[in-house]
Automatic annotation (TrEMBL):
Coiled coil: none
Similarity annotation: Belongs to the SAPS family.
Organism: Urocolius indicus (Red-faced mousebird)
Protein name: PP6R3 phosphatase
GO annotations of cellular component type: cytosol; nucleus
Pfam families: SAPS
PANTHER family, sorted: SERINE_THREONINE-PROTEIN PHOSPHATASE 6 REGULATORY SUBUNIT 3, SIT4 YEAST -ASSOCIATING PROTEIN-RELATED
């Protein structure tokens, strides 16, 4: 094979390295410099390890390129320098991690004024991250000696690459003991408190967002690490600091600052939502309907967090009623005055998380404030905000699945259950959920009948109605829900029952129709094929294979009847291993008239096949053209091919006769049929 030969041509880089005056930029201009570096090209590595080359590579990363350069190539050398330094070559990692001068030069990038160049910051963060991963002890020791490191991280936290560097410092160090030392060091530097201080209305929006994201990731990383190392004697100091009462109070004070800065409010609520997480989030709108307060929760929520939020629930309720001022928003479907806004959306997310905790005191506070009623009003007011509709649907589903608040040892009746589950009672009787669903549905049908557009919340409303029906029949609170529906006015009950069997049932039936059916797709008249002329029937294997192809079903039936069989291309030694599972399904029945066909075959043999006489003369030319006499019957049978046969040789006549023989045999009344039933 061609790959057995050494066809590798030497790289142009090797040719350049033979020159004594070759420069670093000349090598970086070569297209394959990165490939050669990762392939451990000895000459190239030795050149890059020179002190002046390493210093130049670091300089490219941390120094702003000239402004007068073409924008297309301005960041060419910084980019290539970053790729060379992060190509994970052990010799380069060793030199960078062990030489103090190179580390100092790299570290000097943080000394620049804000804001940092985001692209250069990403190069810097990438290089330092791989050094932390490959040389954790040396790099952490170096950073600890820099007393202003945490100050500089906080200063530049508005740059996303610097935030990533902070998180890399927590994730790239795998050994438990060194990682614990890093956590203790960052905790001593009050990293948590300083990040929380950034989430303040006086700070910039980028700093709000990155500080909030950093704290959220610290919470998740700490909890994941605690699950992996359950026998760890030392708790995570960063998570412990973040869950302290004074830190939560500081976050809440930032939310309810008199300036009502939406960016600060949303960022702080994101941190609270992460603290209330009982498991890793999957995707927006996904709810695992198991009772809130579930016993199989992955994470435990600190009670101080819940108590601090409960004390400020009335303030959160006020944010629903009076969010930060936003200008009127004109949209294609109307004017929003005011729009929902990110603040109210995140407050509803917070209420959803609190409902999942199913704390009795928190539920009672929500009932007294009528927060559930307010978010229902918003659901029907903002017709086209599906983010809002999703959160309201989650809240209702959680309430319907909430467990009773009575003690386990108490025996409760159906009436007692309905009274004890205050949230459910509040939802059905005070918030009038059933009545509002019926009114919204009728309003939508009336609007559509007049030629109007279907309301944007109808899909979510259908799911909410189905959730109620499911809870009535099979839900964990089915008895309670049935009792509460009985307490509704008789007219409402009758409307609800009619709605469930008619409108809702018809909608569900439409929604469950298969988008693709197995019906045959009929071709147009221009493309129709006469299957009788082609010899294939409508239900033939070819038609079935084409139907399978249209349905994209790669079944065994499709593989056997369409395309090539792999056995045709297999080696002879492998054919014996082929499975014969379907041999028993083949029908070998032969419908033949043995006597008639045998007589025909013998007659043809006598007429057309000449016997060679071994005792004949040696001078006789067996290939000489000779006239062959036929019987009248055979002449009539083969008259169609008599013209061409006169010019053919004996062997050609013999081949043609055999072909005619088989054609004649096919036209006989008794045909040989082999049915392969698969």
């Amino acid at each position: 094979m061609f790959w057995k030969f050494d066809l590798h041509s030497s790289s142009h880089i090797d040719t350049l390295l033979e020159r004594e005056d070759v420069t670093l930029k000349e090598l970086m201009d070569e297209e394959d410099v990165l490939q050669e570096c990762k392939a451990q090209n000895r000459k190239l590595i030795e050149f890059l390890l020179k002190s002046e080359c390493l210093e130049d590579l670091v300089s490219f990363i941390i120094e702003e390129p000239p402004q007068d350069m073409d924008e297309k190539i301005r960041y060419k050398y910084p980019n290539i320098s970053c790729e060379l330094l992060t190509s994970d070559v052990s010799q380069i990692n060793d030199r960078l991690g062990e030489e103090e001068s190179l580390l100092m030069k790299l570290y000097s990038f943080l000394l620049n004024e804000s804001p940092l160049n985001p692209l250069l910051a990403s190069f810097f963060s990438k290089v330092l991250s791989i050094l932390i991963s490959r040389k954790p002890e040396q790099i952490v020791d170096f950073l600890k000696r820099k007393h202003d490191f945490v100050d500089l991280i906080i200063k530049h936290i508005g740059t996303s690459a610097i935030m990533d560097l902070l998180l890399r410092l927590l994730t790239c160090i795998e050994p438990p003991q060194p990682r614990q030392e890093v956590l203790n060091w960052l905790n001593e530097e009050r990293i948590i408190q300083r990040l929380v201080e950034i989430v303040h209305p006086s700070q910039d929006e980028d700093r709000h967002s990155n500080a909030s994201q950093s704290l959220c990731e610290i919470i998740r990383l700490s909890r994941d690490q605690m699950l992996q190392v359950q026998n760890s004697s030392e708790p995570d100091p960063l998570l412990a600091s973040l869950e302290k009462q004074e830190i939560i109070e500081q976050l809440l004070s930032n939310i309810f600052h008199k300036d009502k800065n939406e960016s600060a409010i949303v960022s702080a609520i994101q941190i609270l939502l992460t603290l209330l997480e009982t498991r890793r989030q999957t995707f927006e709108g996904h709810v695992e309907i198991c009772p809130p307060g579930m016993s199989d929760s992955t994470y435990s929520v600190n009670k101080s967090v819940l108590e601090a939020i409960k004390a400020r629930l009335s303030s959160f309720h006020e944010l629903l009623l009076e969010p930060p001022k936003k200008s009127v928003m004109k949209t294609t479907w109307g004017v929003l005055d005011p729009p929902v806004g990110n603040t109210r959306l995140n407050v509803i997310r917070l209420i959803s998380s609190l409902l999942q905790m199913n704390a009795s005191s928190v539920n009672q506070e929500l009932i007294e404030l009528n927060s559930i009623g307010v978010i229902l009003d918003m659901f029907f007011k903002y017709t086209w905000n599906n983010f809002l509709h999703t959160q309201v649907e989650i809240c209702i589903a959680l309430i319907l699945a909430s467990s009773l608040e009575s003690t386990e040892n108490d025996t409760v009746t159906d009436q007692d259950s309905a009274e004890d589950n205050l949230l459910l009672r509040h939802l059905f009787l005070k918030c009038q959920l059933i009545e509002r669903i019926l009114e919204a549905w009728e309003m939508n049908e009336k609007k559509q009948a007049e030629g109007g557009r279907r309301h944007g919340y109808m899909g979510h409303l259908t799911r909410i109605a189905n959730c109620i029906v499911h809870s009535t029949d099979k839900g964990p609170n089915s008895t309670v829900v049935q009792q509460l529906i009985k307490e509704l006015p008789e007219e409402v009950r009758e409307r609800w029952e009619t709605f469930c069997t008619s409108s809702l049932g018809e909608t569900n039936k439409r929604n469950t129709v298969d988008l693709v059916t197995t019906c045959h797709i009929h071709s147009s008249s221009d493309d129709e094929i006469d299957f009788k002329e082609t010899g294939f029937s409508q239900d033939s294997s070819l038609q079935q294979a084409f139907s399978d192809y249209q349905m994209q079903q790669m079944t065994s039936n499709f593989i056997d009847q369409f395309g090539f069989n792999d056995e045709k291309f297999a080696d002879q030694d492998d054919i014996g291993n082929v499975s014969f599972d379907r041999v028993s399904d083949i029908n070998f029945t032969l419908n033949t008239n043995e006597s008639g066909n045998l007589a025909l075959f013998e007659a043809c043999c006598k007429e057309r096949i000449q016997q060679f006489d071994d005792g004949g003369s040696d001078e006789e030319d067996i290939w000489e053209e000779k006239h062959i006499a036929f019987t009248p019957e055979s002449q009539r049978r083969f008259s169609s091919g008599s013209t061409d046969s006169e010019e053919s040789t004996d062997s050609e006549e013999e081949d043609g006769t055999k072909q005619d023989l088989f054609e004649s045999h096919t036209n006989t009344e008794d045909k040989m049929e082999v049915d392969l039933n698969e």
